[in-house]
Amino acid sequence: MTKQLRLMAVHAHPDDESSKGAATMAKYVSEGVDVLVATCTGGERGSILNPKLQGDTYIEEHIHEVRAKEMAEAREILGVKQEWLGFVDSGLPEGDPLPPLPEGCFALQDVEAAAEPLVRLIRSFRPHVITTYDENGGYPHPDHIMTHKISMVAYEAAGDPERYPGTGEPWTPLKLYYNQGFNRPRTVALHEALLARGLESPYGEWLERWDESDREGRTLTTFVPSAEFFPVRDKALIAHATQIDPEGGWFRVPMEVQQEVWPTEDYELAKSRVPTSIPESDLFAGIRDNDGYE
Ligand SMILES: [Zn+2]
């Protein structure tokens, strides 16, 4: 029997897969790994962040379709499969006090119930490894936090025949990671490298604000070398045209600086059912060489 490694990346909105772990996915695809992105919501409440497309009434009125089309393009670029879990974007509440979340949105769903479509997808795709966000969501968007919650429930439940009956044969994923690509050590390294080269850094203000952040002190366990695929990541991100300003800060750090200074995408191993040693450079460490996987 041919052994096929499978990776599932759970994301809140279309575009999150292209900004978090995209180079990792493209790398694994190039190695023959089967990669599936599970997108929780349609991104219907995302603002149009590309100044060139702001005020376009067609886009505003058809945001769901537009974002689905962008997602299809990004999926092609990354070479991944992708499924929608079918939830409705909660939007990022802004203001003081924060407005209530809109009725029926993803973040207001019951966690147990909302994990069901993910359990179903895990049972049909049978991933060895799942990536998701940490309990802070990576950034405090209610959909990202909800994505974390359903991922944790589904990781535990998918292999248990007693839970979620009628959603397919149980399947036990072996590892679960949090995306930690926007970590402080990486940001500091890029910031300093830019200044040392006499270039402008988009990170100065960010780093100042970051001091109080609760993301400080998170454990990075896994550094996946993926610099070769950073250009693919950027191409996929640009495919989400409504969500990204191609002139924006994201693209202001020269590619060669990124590739030289911090050539990995980074993760925190949150759960493992296989022995592994930290630090790792492969999401499949402890699985790949084990005859036990199927
Ligand atoms: Zn998002």
TrEMBL record:
Native source species: Streptomyces harbinensis
Gene: mca
HAMAP family recorded: Mca
Record-linked Pfam families: PIG-L
Domain of life: Bacteria
EC number assigned by the record: 3.5.1.115
Name of the featured protein: Mycothiol S-conjugate amidase
Binding site for Zn(2+): H13, D16, H144
GO biological-process terms attached to the record: mycothiol metabolic process; mycothiol-dependent detoxification
Cofactor note: Binds 1 zinc ion per subunit.
Molecular function terms, GO-annotated: hydrolase activity, acting on carbon-nitrogen (but not peptide) bonds, in linear amides; zinc ion binding
